[in-house]
Please model this.
Amino acid sequence: MATFSEHLRGRSDEELVRLLLRRPDLAHPSPATLASLAARATSRPSLDRALAGVDAAVLQAVEAVVALLAGSTDPAGGVRARDVVAAVGASRADAPAVRAALATATDLALLHPVGGRASDPVLRPAPGVAELLGPATAGLAAPAPHDPDPAAVPGLLAAAPAAGRAVLDALTWGPPVGVRPAAGAAAEAVTELLRAGLLARADERHVVLPRTVALALRDGRTHRAPASPPAPEDLPRRDAALVEAEHAAAAERVVRLVAGLIRLWGRTPPPVLRAGGLGVRDLRRTAVALEVTEAEAAFVVELAGVGALVRDDGEESPHHVPTTVADEWLALDLPGRWARLATWWAATPRTPSLVGTRDERGSVRPALGPDLGRPWSPRLRQAVLGLLAEAGPGAAPDAPAVREGLAWRTPRSVPPLDAVAAVLREAGWLGVLGAGALATAGRALLGDADPRPALAEGLAAALPPAVDDLLLQADLTGIVPGRPSQDLEALVDRAARVESRGGAVTVRFTPESVRDALDAGSTADDLLAELASHARGGVPQPLEYLVRDAARRHGRLRAGAASSYVRTEDPALLAGLAEDPRHADLGLVRLAPTVLAAQAPLHELLAALRAHGLAPVAETPDGQVLHAAPTLRRVAAARPRFAADDAGRGAVPPAERAAALVGVLRRAEEARAAGGSTGGAGAVVRAAAAEAAAPRADGAPTLRDRASGVAAATAAARAAGPRTGPRPSRGTADPAEALGMLREAAAGHTEVWLDVVGSRGALERRRVLPVRVDGGRVRVVDTARDAEIVVAAHRVAAVTPVDAAGTQPPDDDAAAADPRETDTA
Amino acid sequence: MTDGPLIVQSDKTLLLEVDHDQAEACRRAIAPFAELERAPEHVHTYRLTPLGLWNARAAGHDAEQVVDTLLEYSRYPVPHALLVDVAETMSRYGRLQLVAHPVHGLVLHALDAAVLAEVLRSKRTAGLVGERIDDTDVVVHASERGTLKQALLKLGWPAEDLAGYVDGEAHPIDLDTSGESDLGTDGAPRPWQLRPYQAEAADGFWHGGSGVVVLPCGAGKTLVGAAAMARSKTTTLILVTNTVSARQWRDELIRRTSLTPDEIGEYSGSRKEIRPVTIATYQVLTLKRKGVYPHLELLDARDWGLIVYDEVHLLPAPIFRMTADLQARRRLGLTATLVREDGREDEVFSLIGPKRYDAPWKDIEAQGYIAPADCVEVRLTLPERDRMLYATAEPEDKYRLAASAPGKTEVVKRLVAQHRGEPLLVIGQYIDQLEELAADIDAPVITGSTSVTERQRLFDAFRAGEISTLVVSKVANFSIDLPEASVAIQVSGSFGSRQEEAQRLGRLLRPKGDGRTAHFYAVVARDTVDQDFAAHRQRFLAEQGYAYRIVDAEDLEQATEEPA
Model:
């Protein structure tokens, strides 16, 4: 019977590469030896990750193996594959799928073969898997000494009262523990069942269905039915043209909204909250200005934040201000802008749907606030988009259907429904989806390559052809019967108010909108000529009148900027002042016979006038308002954090990296097999511990001294390991490897020598039978003293398997290094 | 992408390109479920509203037809969410039905028990329903039939009223198409026929049970009422806006039906007659004395078989409350527009009934039943002194100042001179301005204080051609038949009321004997609130396809020669 690490050693190079590719956490950082690889592969976090990534069928297969083994008479043995097939209730047709799931689990090193034929292997779960799956795997209670004899169960069941049957039925497929009813017929039935031994008492209030009874009720199966993926043909389908059209419309819209946000905040930047982020009222104001809901506004704001299009300007009273990156973004064409938005969204851990929810302290999470990052967010987006892509073109599943699909793919980590709904909603807003189905362009987000070129191309292909026609009507409305060309879009943006969008754009000309166009520098004739050049039917008379009327009124009031002014009752005093060349640098302008405006600040003006022999006095600023043109603010930007999307993703393809790593591991293995055995660890540790404990002689040791003593001793022991050259082939001082060995020993019920740094800092060696390795603690049975002890994992200095003879491993004191050497290490 | 004439916007507006080959077919196809919002020259805008969709359901269209129509004519792919929404909205109508139960009387029956449970949980229905019969039926107090329908509409589950109507007291009424009752000036009978759309409207109403017929001013709504009465052949209560309008209904009924003057009663401020056909004014019904409405008994004075509401869009709020109690009687609403300035379209829907017939203004004009019109806005630049006065006036006085600018008199004089000999109306809001104008152009003036007999005398004289020019205040807005007025000059309006503008234009749109074009002038003071209000009022007509030309008062001479 092979242990897990032996199995791993026995794998072919291809199989190891496959393992490293499918469980990438094993390769980062690179393990030094296959033993440490085995240790890492059986550590709780790594197993947790591996199980989180498997689909429901593989999980079911692993559960079945664990459940069957738990009830087996030989817990150190294995389970035959065909028993697993039967246990999950697979029909002949389902059997290949179950065997495939077992093979996948073996590939992932969640199971390993301990015998049997290749076609029907005997499998064992990797050490640690059973603990991870929990006590009631597959809804079966752990075996207990008082469980009724399997042979006797059918008889007991036949004799069970009818009322009790319902209780048993409720517990049959797990969970096996139920709350005991306080009174009534059910309580009596439970009492009856307890008496018959068909239920066991778990504690005062709970009962448990014994394993043997459950298995009898289940016909010996561990699962009701083999897990199968949800059928994609049940999903609603959308027409491809519709998907592309809605994708293009949404993409255009989101780009317009982000551009609108930049324009809005460029003029009136909202303040940054003291704790960071955008205030609720400012979000609402932004939503109103963009004409969207607050949720969508939060999404747009977050999107702009993720791309560093806006950021905190760092002033004394900080504001959210568009950055120079925003200008670069605005300079791109529509597909280019959208491709960036979509890439940012896919990669960011920030989760806009959390905006407006409350944190643990009950305060609202603001948009752009510090508390929106969720590491699972990009993974969930990938998972959801991946699922949509796999469902086939035009498939438009709703959130529950997507969640069902995810529950099949990753049953150990099913995202909450509202998170899935939020991803779908955001993807819809962004236009990655059209009419709820993944658009062609959206597929680009799933690859490893830089998605931006494909995104932009996809959108460009989906956009309807631009229209250059504007239908002008006498009720002062205009209609662009399609997607306006860039030219036309700019014109209507400038001179009209958009009333509705969709397949077409309808606009209304108002005195205000025309005035805006005039403010932007057009003249009435320019504007009319421009309108006429786009208008199929000419410019209607009321519109022409409106433009001319607006132009007539435009500019009848003049406003300008001045820093100071001079005024007097007597025009003669000002005569010649403005024209005097000596005052050229004051920038004097005659506004009226009795008023001069100056560009120079007041103190300079006063000084100059006084030098001229005049006697001016300063005035208090009586509500004098200075009109300044709106300034668009910008600050220098930090680049978006995931600059990786510019650098390309990972220079070396993962498959090559993994293959290279396997080569390294093999060489380490060979070197280890070839090397001699000079385990100096123990000696080093002893010396280090002695040194660390030395201060005790001078006075009472502080807690800190002792703690540092342990740390120093353990570290020294570990550091000594690799440095003192080849070690005994079977023992280890590498902490991860040591834990792996302990786990393996616990699973295989074998004894090991355990070197532990004791409470005084001295190294103690014990012969133990490990029971459980969990949560930083090792529970072992000291066989010599027949006592169970718990050791903190950081105190474990070395682990050595007990060889057949049961002798102590050699402890070569001669090889002990000078303690001072450890200091220099 | 097809090449259809229709563009569906995501905000549920439909844009119909009128110059397209299929435009006419498309218009016909979408008319039952989409409300025409505006109809300028190139692109007409329709809107999908829940009321519109429910109107379509009431008329027997289903969601599939609506969706198919949109898909068939749409140029671009129709937003999926919109189609889902249409189907969802339409499926809400009729899940609840008001039916007459042989044992329990009036019963609210649900085709879907969950819907019934939902509406019964709402506070709005509390007290309106009685005991629950079973999962899908609940007794309704007969007196709360209307209120319940209103409440259900507000909840978004409009009920289909299948409970039927009381027959009412029978009374023979027939259309008299022989003309025996309408002798011409030479004493010979003048036979006539219902116009096709009038007959269709009356049919549409009768088959629907209750509801609203929408026809433009001048299209002969009175005759639709008369035709409905002839179908009903029962005692009828007609509710109109004012006494003058009541008299005209009465005259028209005598002329067009077998009814004799003795069978028609007037129930107004001056007379309180209750006859088999009674015409009452809104004013008298809503008169409140010491907290009670003393004339409400009229509604129960006879066992009316039909109730006709003239100018539904003006129906005052108290009448709605009273109408809520009249749900067992057939109700016909007549109006030129379902647009209500107060936005109570939904009450019209739930209390009077869904729209049963609708014909766009321009269509009827094209058929020659209403006169074409030329609309001109004359902009008057205020003199310096008036502008200063206006600029410094209190905000509440500004409109009055601008609207009654003295310069307008000169403009009106010039327009009157231009149209000398044609029947011409000058319409305004402010009495002193009108009186001043009347003195200036030497024409009689009719205001609210003019006695009814005097008004009738002046109108008759105007009709007979004895007077060619009349100055009228807003009393002329509604239901006054001035068949041959072909020029109207509006000097001031009541702020921005859109339906007022429609009514005023309506005055002109009755077909002219010689097929002349009608002229409608609005004189507006430039750069004032007058201009802003005018813009708002005109928007409605511009949206109906009556484009305004704008001319400066100084350019008046040449501009008015243009259309000739």
Observations:
- Chain A touches chain B at residues 238-239, 241-242, 245-246, 249, 435-436, 464, 471-477, 479, 481-482, 500-504, 506, 537, 540-542, 545, 553 (CB under 8 Å).
- The longest helix of chain A spans residues 240-267.
- Residues 689 and 713 of chain A are 5 Å apart (CA to CA).
